[in-house]
Amino acid sequence: MRTPFARLAPRWFDALLNSEGLTYRLLVRKARLCACQDARGSGPDPSCPVCGGVGYLWEDPPWEEREVELLVPASSEEADTRMSGPTGILPHAWAELVGVEGPNGPVSGARLEDGRLLLPPEAPRPALYRVRYRAPRQGRGHVQDMRLARTWADRGEVMEGDLLLTVPAQGPDGPNPAWEVRPHDQVVLLDHRLWVQQRMVRGVREALSHPWVLEVRGARAVLEGQEVSYPFGNAFTLSEGRVVWAPGQGPPPRTPYVLDYVAAPAYYVLADLGHRRHIEGWRLPRRLQLRLFEAYPGRGRGT
Asked: What is the phi-psi region of residue 254: left when phi exceeds 0, alpha when psi lies from -120 to 50, beta otherwise?
């Protein structure tokens, strides 16, 4: 008598978890323990000028140059029908254009808008274009159970901003960096948009919770009983995830203010909901619980 048995098809798991339109593009910022230490205990130094008292530093992923062939449709209406094939949209988020070559040679005046290739009016359409661009190393994952309020689940209390993420070992163009994450690492959801109103203190706490910023709407402070607005670009800029004020601009030192911006939200790895499975040599998908970085322990205590 033959005994029936089940066999896994890991490639189908990976293909589903890398599907366009069904999964998020992700990048990973690896956590690195800061060398500081509180003289009164075993934790980080709350006044550390490097980590701001959080205890960890996060490294941005490397940028890689890539080349892809895109079919640019004749009209924007055709470009919105993504399921019919390539429509002039890059497979990687947060890309910077390097060069474009079309049927008549190099194209000048091309640009990217939210990952879509926009060509000058004289460029032929529809046509195939070879596009060179730079983008941070990224993978894909499936997001579930994104919480909008505090609740209870079978694994305990779930805070606002929690979500579950399932990541395959292999991405569309190589190993998925999100499969290797560990607790404290950050995962940025590049296809999601979060409107942030973050409390800051001039010269004390000016690091962004979500440094992958798409739009800055300005800053606001209360001075002498009146709300004062500070425009982005004139009064301040952003550099390496921090607010940088122009000379003579902004609220006085140690004055609280609010920064309004839109960003791709950053989460940190709270828990691994299952071991890294290597059944019969296969690297099977991992399931992780993430939490918005705004809730990271010690966050907002320092710079």
From this structure: left
